[in-house]
Design a protein that fits this description.
Chain lengths: ~250, ~270
């Protein structure tokens, strides 16, 4: 049984870069819905997520929609355990695999081979599983002898193939997928496509952030509409998509 | 891909989990060393070469300056500078601990202790490498004493432990306050000259307190003295033990309080 339970989750990002005072002046006219706030020690914060209550269980396939900056990536990072909530509670049961960025963190100075081991370990794959997965990744990435060469010598295409192969070699019970992952055209060759589908279908809970309604319909049956860091609608995908499109129309 | 229960895990849990993930931090640290030296054709020998050049030229010139015999001065300086470069590297690199691990931290949930141990391990490798030079100098000038090897081990232990807490403590501080790098570098630069590394504490005469209150002096002394075949003062052990304990307590409390903030400060 996998599940994600979020109760009254707030995520506040501190603003450390800007001059806080001048920013305060700009925002001195307080808007009720403003995401800029002052915390109790009057430091500037941006509210990333506000009052998120969510309960996902086995079989849930959720498409997360919302404008840029609505909090989609933040929500996914919370599910992946990367952002501990500022307040509220998050309980995730099951192995989470989060595909959020393509970058991955390949080390330029060591071979592709060693990079595979390293990244798999980083993603929490157990040591016994590594040889098998390594084999499979090498085969998928089609790097040939390059696999023994340091990654710094790879072409962009080779890097992407390797990064994609490693990231998708995991078999999570909960798959959290951001649209930006694998958005590169090269990645979505037929083979990569199949691999991605496989991964999605194997996951018990699937959470997918995307701007493309077509893609969401293909993989999800539930929709979650995020706006300004809060959940505007959650339920049947079609209804939520309609609510989203209506909200966009009203805004423009 | 682990069972995540936010709010349930603790600082102590992080530390245990972090240490258990030795496969990761050993690799991270080693790859850092590889990355640093792969472009030079002499590879890791470059580390040795720079140390040798530094120690020999410094030893030769300063022994004349301080009117000391090369036999006494050269090994003293060799061990002192090598130990110092370890302490100083740990201190300044610790500030970047989480900043340099940003790509990992923002992508996957792991105990942040992995990244602090990576800094420790990386510096231990380099230190061990340079220590060979210091060791050889001690042997060549007839200072080596087998009987003092257990004390050498204890000295190394102390130096290792400092890196563990410093990387946690400064790692968090350095993530929140990015301009600390300049401050710390300044402090370390000054410390190099006020710590008995190039000069002997005996030259302080009546003002020996200058060395006595300096934690760096005691830490260096715990390794330097036994490597020169001498016994460190008991006070140095007491001082270093208290210093280490205080450091760990501070690092632990600091970590417990701010470990959840690290990712937000990146």
């Amino acid at each position: 049984m996998s599940s994600i339970v979020m109760e009254n989750v707030f995520i506040d990002f501190p603003i450390l870069q800007q001059d806080q005072r001048s920013l305060k002046r700009i925002l001195s006219a307080p808007l009720a819905t403003s995401r800029f706030r002052l915390d109790d020690r009057s430091k500037m914060i941006v509210r990333g997520l506000r009052d998120i209550n969510l309960n996902l269980k086995d079989g849930d396939r959720v498409g997360v929609i919302g404008l840029n900056g609505a909090g989609k990536s933040t929500l996914m990072r919370v599910m992946a355990g990367i952002y501990p909530p500022t307040s509220g509670s998050v309980e995730v049961k099951g192995r989470v695999g989060a595909l959020l960025t393509v970058g991955l963190g390949l080390r330029d100075d060591v071979s592709g081979y060693k990079n595979i081991d390293f990244c798999l370990l980083l993603f929490g794959v157990s040591v016994d599983e590594i040889p098998e997965k390594r084999e499979e990744i090498v085969e998928f990435a089609e790097l040939g002898d390059f696999i023994h060469l340091h990654v710094g010598a790879y072409s962009t295409g080779m890097r992407t193939r390797l990064a994609f192969a490693i990231a998708t070699a995991i078999d999570p019970e909960i798959l959290v997928l951001d649209e930006v992952f694998g958005a590169g055209d090269a990645t979505f060759l037929k083979k990569a496509h199949d691999r991605m589908h496989d991964l999605i279908h194997k996951a018990r809970i699937f959470v997918f952030a995307s701007h493309a309604p077509g893609l969401l319909e293909q993989f999800c049956d539930k929709g979650l509409f995020l706006d300004g860091g809060a959940i505007k609608a959650f339920g049947d995908l079609r209804e939520v998509t309609e609510a989203y499109e209506e909200a966009i129309r009203d805004r423009t | 891909m682990k069972l995540i229960k936010s709010g349930h895990s603790s600082a102590a849990n992080d530390m245990v989990v972090g240490i258990m993930d030795w496969r990761l931090w050993l690799r991270l640290g080693w790859y850092d060393v590889v990355a640093r030296y792969r472009r030079s054709w002499v590879g890791p020998f470059w580390m040795l070469a720079t140390t040798v050049i530094f120690v020999v030229s410094l030893g030769a010139v300063y022994s004349i300056l301080f009117k000391m015999s090369l036999r006494d001065y050269m090994p003293y300086v060799a061990i002192g500078t090598v130990t110092w470069s370890y302490i100083s590297a740990v201190t300044s690199e610790s500030l970047q601990t989480f900043v340099e691990a940003e790509v990992y931290i923002r992508q996957v949930h792991r105990s942040p202790i992995i990244y602090t141990l990576r800094v420790v391990w990386r510096n231990l490798i380099i230190f061990g490498n340079q220590l060979i030079v210091a060791f050889l100098v001690a042997v060549v000038f007839g200072k080596f004493s087998l009987a003092h090897m257990p004390l050498v081990a204890i000295g190394l232990m102390f130096l290792f432990l400092q890196a563990v807490w410093i990387s946690i403590f400064l790692g968090i501080l350095g993530t929140r306050f990015r301009d600390l790098t300049q401050v710390v570098q300044n402090i370390m630069q000054v410390s190099f000259f006020v710590t008995p590394i190039l000069w002997m504490p005996t030259s302080l005469g009546d003002n020996s307190w200058i060395a006595t209150i300096n934690p760096f002096y005691h830490l260096i002394q715990l390794l330097r003295a036994p490597m020169l075949g001498q016994n460190p003062e008991v006070f140095s052990y007491v001082f270093a033990s208290c210093f280490t304990l205080a450091g760990f307590v501070a690092a632990y409390f600091f970590y417990s309080k701010f470990r959840n903030r690290i990712v937000y400060w990146l």
